[in-house]
Amino acid sequence: MSDGRTPRRAEPPARRRAPVPTVDLRPWLSGDRAARARIARTVDDALRTAGFLLVTGHGVDPSLRTRIRAAARAFFVLPAETKQPYAARVGGRGWLGPGAEANGYAEGTATPPDLKESLTFATREPFGDPRTDAEWYAPNVWPAEAPGLRDLCEEYLTRMAGLTNHLLALLGEALGLEPDFFTRHMDHPTYGFNINWYPGREVVGPPEPNQFRIGPHTDFGTVTLLDRQAGRGGLQVFTDADGWLDAPFDPAAFTVNIGDLMARWTGDRWRSGRHRVLPPPADAPAEELMSLVYFGECTPGTVVESVPAPVGRVAYPPVGSHTYLRAKLDSITVD
């Protein structure tokens, strides 16, 4: 017999979160030697297990990230024919439309194309060598339909470059090496910046089997700084003990992970964190998320050599940083 009330919708079961620690950078930036040593140990432990950590105390204004999202969304929701003049290939500058990437290809995982669109920008200062400039320092393309986005992004990129240098100095100390072990290779970095838009099912339709907003992969380069939003179709991290788990979320924090080149550099002491972004969920089909992804990369011509034992565990052959990066970017391109 009904009591006339609308039945409550059952809440989805809570999902387990990956064991990723949070590091407050303030003691690192201004603390005493003992505080800095404690933070370095925490970072070393985190990167040996999951390859991820959350970072607070970074000083980046949250309103800047909010304004970038608003300006970028005004572009993403435009008709495809309006966005098409800004179309770019993976690793280029401009708009990556639906179906441009399948990140799972990088690890040999056969997946349909990723369910996302991106605006992609990169370093602004030319290197000085014509061939290198043509490949890695092409001018950024700023959509006229997104007024204000350029100034916001350039401010953000300046802040990210400074934060990346602080983190790389911390990583050097976490290995027990000199603080400039990594930063001395970043005097002319080819950093990249992607604004990833993950629309809901009303835009992308129902996912195909084994299709993700971003397929399972590890990042390719040195260090990634991610500003993300929480959602049921959000970031997951792979753990050896439990498989795929939701990444913990703190709106004040950046999610930081290392990539393949950093793992090679450390002789696999640290792991390149495997991750994916889930498709728009059936129980929240209109969910829309946007991530700001900063890829900190080294100067072209850097030779990445594994640090020897006892710090490193595996001695990889030396590799040119940007030869490696180009091969990986080509691997995820959907022709």
Key features of this structure:
single chain; 335 residues; alpha+beta; Jelly Rolls; four-stranded antiparallel sheet; 10 helices; globular; disordered N terminus
Provide a concise account of the structure shown.
An 8-stranded mixed sheet has the order 1-2-10-7-12-5-4-3.
Can you tell me about this structure?
By secondary structure, the chain is of the alpha+beta class. The protein has one domain: B-lactam Antibiotic, Isopenicillin N Synthase, Chain (Jelly Rolls, Sandwich), CATH 2.60.120.330. The protein has 10 helices and 14 strands. It has helices at 26-30, 33-49, 62-76, 80-83, 130-136, 149-174, 180-183, 201-204, 260-265, 321-331, and strands at 22-24, 52-56, 94-96, 117-122, 192-198, 214-217, 223-227, 235-239, 243-246, 254-258, 275-277, 289-296, 303-304, 319-320. Strands 1-2-10-7-12-5-4-3 form an 8-stranded mixed β-sheet. β8 (235-239) and β9 form a beta hairpin. It is globular and about 55 Å long. The relative contact order is 0.18. Mean pLDDT is 89; it is low at 1-12.
What is the topology?
Blueprint: E1 22-24, H1 26-30, H2 33-49, E2 52-56, H3 62-76, H4 80-83, E3 94-96, E4 117-122, H5 130-136, H6 149-174, H7 180-183, E5 192-198, H8 201-204, E6 214-217, E7 223-227, E8 235-239, E9 243-246, E10 254-258, H9 260-265, E11 275-277, E12 289-296, E13 303-304, E14 319-320, H10 321-331
Parallel strand pairs: 1-2
Antiparallel strand pairs: 2-10, 3-4, 4-5, 5-12, 6-11, 7-10, 7-12, 8-9, 8-11, 13-14
Helix pairs in contact: 2-6, 3-6
